[in-house]
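As noted in the main text, all predictions were made from sequence alone. Below is one such record, for Response regulator transcription factor.
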Amino acid sequence: MLITLKARLQQLRYHFAITLLLIACTICVAFSINGPDGFSTSGREVLLRSIGHQLLLQAGDSTSRVLPIKHIAEDEYRIIFEKAFTFRPEKLVNTARQLLAKDPQTDNYIVNVLDAANKDVVYGYAISRNQKDDVVPCKGRLQPKGHYQISVKFKPENNLAKNQYLLGGLPFLALVGFVLLRSDKQGEPQTRKHQEGKFAFGSVVFNPQEKLLTIDNQTIELTGTETRLLRIFASLPNQTIERSRLQKEIWEDEGVIVGRSLDMFISKLRRKLEADPYTNIVVVRGKGYKLEVLA
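Prediction:
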């Protein structure tokens, strides 16, 4: 029971370490994929087209088109119109503010209305996260009808700074996972086969040629069947071995397989191994048996 509990704790520690490493990797990948703005370019372009559409409706134009949005630079876009129109600055400001509020990364931006022919700025304003810092001139003045383009430039958002606590903890998270995984691997029990054909696992030295077990300087004799059975287990420590395989390899040559014989020899081996607290033969329900080695 103690051995099974220790094995379970080792397994849980291994899974916990793997989980920590996967979490750290997933967060890093998520940041590298999403980039700093966290809002898709296509989604932002839809909002900008909506701004252009509303401006045309406010000018009484319900037939001309808003042409495809141009992505000028990483954080700069341009709204292009098919025909000339007129606009009021306060309506442009309010419409843009209302629609861009749906984008969580557009607290700060600059809007310039350009003459489509020479790209001169005919009107512009700036919106800040702190509304006291907004710069919105010429409210209430109807702008003359013209062929305009609207440039919208967003202030790059530094999500790495916003999430500095999360990202700062990633190295520690990865380090903990690595240490746990490494210590688990270093402590992973193995059987060691000596050059003279002996196996060592836990505090046991198994000599199949002499049919002997040595546990803490105590020598225990094995029968031929016990030796063949333990040799299979010692070759595959901590691995489930199917019951049918054990029966076939041990008794097939004798021409008869008795189901209860395997259970009897497993029981005998357990009694002979019980002097070693780190070694036991456990039942894997519905499958077979496993030599469980903890050190």
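Residues 2-36+161-186 form one domain. The first strand starts at residue 66 and ends at 73. These features were considered when defining construct boundaries for the mutagenesis experiments described in Section 2.9.
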